[in-house]
Write a structure and sequence with these properties.
Elements: H1 5-17, H2 28-37, E1 40-46, H3 57-61, E2 65-71
Amino acid sequence: MEDDLTLSAGICFELDCSGYLTIPAYNCKKAIHLIQNDPIDLVILDVNLPDEPTGNLDSKTSDNVVALLHMTSQKSIRPLL
């Protein structure tokens, strides 16, 4: 999940070219809907999304996600936990 459309498109493009199926979600609400309806192998997650703290995603989706990778373009962040 990445709310920057250009960055999201770039990440999806690179993964698609490597043979992975990507499903972009630009906010937590859409991502939670996608994850709760289908098992997901990997979620690449921007730590700063506009609609909800991304730390809440773990508890709402843990049964359907194999791995969760948090990323940011910020120089520093506060711990998520």
